[in-house]
């Protein structure tokens, strides 16, 4: 049976059916119904944040958050992310400016941000990659010095705390993803974390066409509301999330125990005083040309193990952003993207499966696998 890099956690079907019956009986399946409101309240309490606005997905949440902050012109961000991050900037009418990442955390490098600021810069969009917190102190200092807004793409960072405080409280706004692949999911979904009631009200308005009353549209909004059905799934998932994170932690421990670190393979796990949600398990393989990493990727796939090269290629190699390539210098991000491989990790992954994956990785890295030919190596 195939093993994928992740697998959605699902609650017992009978419990979900019970939630659906309540929704069916109410006759309300969208427009911030009682289930939606309950999930907002419970998530706000669980995450330790003052205000949260639920969305149908995190990409729309990013777009609306950018609009809510009234950003114009250029926004500095990272090339080492999922393409939804810069796509949201384009959809919001903004120009992404890509700068390099920190070699230890893989997050946006604040010193590179400082150098990239121009008179057209209005904001910074860092990403908490793999749930590792960005250096908010330095980013905040740069932002305050130049009068910039900070919006965190916290898609990976559900439940992560630094010094006991949610990192979703960093910046002016934060956006978290509830996609099926995430630690906490509502099948599709996301949220904007707001620091003030006023921002929460504006975000809520923008995700509901801009309405402020039945007959009054204040500004051009969009339809990005989470349905009652997704919210019901979220309530059940929230009951299970601690158990899911604990199960992910056990898989992470298994990899740490059985993978053989060498000069050809290392485990990426930055140090720091923050809680880990174990949303990903990245390793770094081989040298900067990516040949060994890509061969391992193809070998595992041939065994029915579908690891992922998160994030490869860099988003700056995609069509909408390729025009920037000539004036970009992101050597750290480029090197990491050619070496990184995220191994499968999800709550239902069995320990013996994680051990098997570790053994296959060890054998391949050590050159003990004979007869495997990467037929795609030339194209990679």
Keywords:
single chain; 380 residues; alpha/beta; Aspartate Aminotransferase, domain 2; Aspartate Aminotransferase, domain 1; 2 domains; 7-stranded mixed beta sheet; 3-stranded antiparallel beta sheet; 11 helices; 15% strand
Walk me through what this model shows.
With 380 residues, this protein is an alpha/beta fold. The chain has 2 domains: 3-236, Type I PLP-dependent aspartate aminotransferase-like (Major domain) (Aspartate Aminotransferase, domain 2, 3-Layer(aba) Sandwich), CATH 3.40.640.10; 241-365, Aspartate Aminotransferase, domain 1. It is 37% helix and 15% strand. It has 11 helices and 16 strands. The chain has helices at 13-26, 34-47, 58-68, 84-91, 110-116, 136-146, 197-206, 228-258, 291-302, 331-337, 351-365, and strands spanning 3-4, 51-55, 74-77, 95-98, 121-125, 149-153, 161-162, 165-166, 173-177, 190-194, 211-213, 216-217, 265-267, 282-285, 305-306, 340-342. The strands form 5 sheets. A 7-stranded mixed sheet has the order 2-10-9-6-5-3-4, with helices on both faces. Strands 13-14-16 form a 3-stranded antiparallel sheet. A two-stranded parallel sheet has the order 1-15. The longest helix has 31 residues, at 228-258. The model has no long low-confidence stretch (mean pLDDT 95).
């Amino acid at each position: 049976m195939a093993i994928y890099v992740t697998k959605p956690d699902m609650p017992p079907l009978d419990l979900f059916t019970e939630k659906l019956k309540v929704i069916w009986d109410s006759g309300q399946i969208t427009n911030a119904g009682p289930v939606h409101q309950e999930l907002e309240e419970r998530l706000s309490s669980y995450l330790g944040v003052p205000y949260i606005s639920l969305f149908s997905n995190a990409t729309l949440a990013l777009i609306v958050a950018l609009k809510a902050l009234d950003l114009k012109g250029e926004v500095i961000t990272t090339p080492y992310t999922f393409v939804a991050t810069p796509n949201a900037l384009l959809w919001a009418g903004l120009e992404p400016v890509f700068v390099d990442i920190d070699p230890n955390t893989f997050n946006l490098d604040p010193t590179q941000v400082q150098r990239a600021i121009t008179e057209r810069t209005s904001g910074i969009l860092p990403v908490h990659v793999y749930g590792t917190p960005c250096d908010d102190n330095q980013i905040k200092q740069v932002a305050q010095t130049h009068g910039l807004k900070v919006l965190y793409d916290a898609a990976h960072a559900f439940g992560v705390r630094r010094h006991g405080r949610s990192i979703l409280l960093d910046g002016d706004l934060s956006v978290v993803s509830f996609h099926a692949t995430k630690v906490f999911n509502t099948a599709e979904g996301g949220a904007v974390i707001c620091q003030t009631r006023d921002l929460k009200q504006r975000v809520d308005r923008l995700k509901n066409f801009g309405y402020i009353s039945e007959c009054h549209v204040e500004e051009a909004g969009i339809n990005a509301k989470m349905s009652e059905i997704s919210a019901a799934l979220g309530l059940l998932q929230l009951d299970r999330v601690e158990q899911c994170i604990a199960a992910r932690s056990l898989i992470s421990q298994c990899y740490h125990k059985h993978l053989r670190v060498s000069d050809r393979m290392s485990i990426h796990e930055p140090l720091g005083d923050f809680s880990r949600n174990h949303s990903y398990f990245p390793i770094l393989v081989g040298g900067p040309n990516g040949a060994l990493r890509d061969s391992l990727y193809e070998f595992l796939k041939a065994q029915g193990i579908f690891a992922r090269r998160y994030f490869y290629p860099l988003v700056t190699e995609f069509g909408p952003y390729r025009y920037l390539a000539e004036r970009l210098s992101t050597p750290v991000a480029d090197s990491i993207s050619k070496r990184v491989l995220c191994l499968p990790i999800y709550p239902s992954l069995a320990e013996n499966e994680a051990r098997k994956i570790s053994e296959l990785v060890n054998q391949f890295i050590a050159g003990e696998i004979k007869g495997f030919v990467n037929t795609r190596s030339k194209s990679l």
